[in-house]
Fold these 2 entries.
Entry 1:
Amino acid sequence: ANGGMVRGTIIENLPGDHVSIQLATGEVRVFASAEVRYAGPSVMPAESLAVPRPPPPPAVSPTVRVHVEATSDELTLQQVTGTATAVVSSGRGFAQVQIDQFAPLCTAPCDIEIAPGTYTLGISLGQGTARRADHNLFTLDHDTSLELEYDSREGLRIAGWVIFVGGVIAGASIMLVPLLNGDDFLVPLIAGAVVLFVAEIVGLALAFLNDHADIRETY
């Protein structure tokens, strides 16, 4: 061009018209074909001239909205996060029991947003121990509403221990009467044994009665 030489990358070469060259500095110079004695064969690929596209925005994890109501105050929706197995002695041997680990979600009435999935749920009353609900497995893949129900049976458990302890004392007393008075011991012995048996069955059944907890999906 004009007796000189220009080094760069040919980005456009139209014979009889013009030649466009991109210099190392990024500047693009255009020369009429009549000014160009020789132009090399290299032409910059079209994709190198394209405006770079911005990276796609990060994916946003979808969530579902869960509205929580309760039939009584101070009920907290809990999620089972793990289950441990423990070995305990029952007096007649050893038994395995499962101990759930919970994480609180919210105290009703409330609204939460969580990732879609299958959840094992439970309930706690106030600051009490959480326990699995009777219906505890939910696939939450859409907006929904849950209703919590919890009935404390603490009074029945206390009554169970009263029945058990009172029955043991009463049964033992009945069986000891003939020994103290010198009477026939067969009938008191049978009567005392019956009292002890009933006290053990009924009293312990009530003493270890679990609270009632349930969760219902209302829509």
Entry 2:
Amino acid sequence: MTPPRLGPVQGATLVTADLAQCTASYCDHLHQREHHRGVLADAEARALGWPELGGTPCAWLANTLDEPWLRIIENPDAERQQPFEHYGWLSLEISVRDVDALGKALEDSPFDIIGPPANLAVGEAIRAMQVVGPCGEVLYLTEIKADLPPFELPRARCPVDRLFIPVMMAPDREAALGHYEQCAGAEGLRFETRITVISGARGLDRDHPHPVATLQLPGNTLIEIDQVDGLAPAAFANASPPTGIALAHFRHGNPEGAAAPEQDPGAWSLNDFHLATGAAGERYLVQNP
């Protein structure tokens, strides 16, 4: 089956060893709400390569606008995956309204602050912080204050809005970007920049230049690719997934760049999405036309 054309970022799937604790962390500290709770269907679990997770509890979380975007699947036997050690999805970049206020609120929370609020290298248009969540997932919490061409970025509509950039680490920027350029029918940007949280985690100088690429998608969403050397292979294509970011979700788009109407994830079925694997071993779902 030919994969559908890649459209806007829709959300992501996390794996946790403790669903109740993980959902409470996001609801109590990141302004999310439980939108739907159920179980992972046996057929979908098999299709994802995780047959033993069929029937396991899962939940969808939504922002305060009642837009579900984050699925959390429980795997009680999951080993905690440490961030910055594996290729594949590293981080979920989420649009927030006031990153400084959120940073203060997260000081006593299950989210470990690894980068306090600060302006990015591009200047005062973007201010962000970085945290590690209860599953070992990295979150970039980003306040967009002004337009920053050529990027098309969202302004937060509520205190913590939703995912707009899944960020991945790859051994080869060109191979990873080429995969998504072909899927999206668009050309990305290539540049070098410092990424302090990666440099700190990998023992590199703070100002070390990392090869980076971005691919603009519809809906003010993007994919970011950070080239890093010497990591372990992506860890989610196995029968017992560890904790962390397991899947990114995308809606499908047409050649003109428009996207299909967004589905209610609580009504998903296996036939609604196409499973694909990128050049760094990361896996993602694209909504079928």
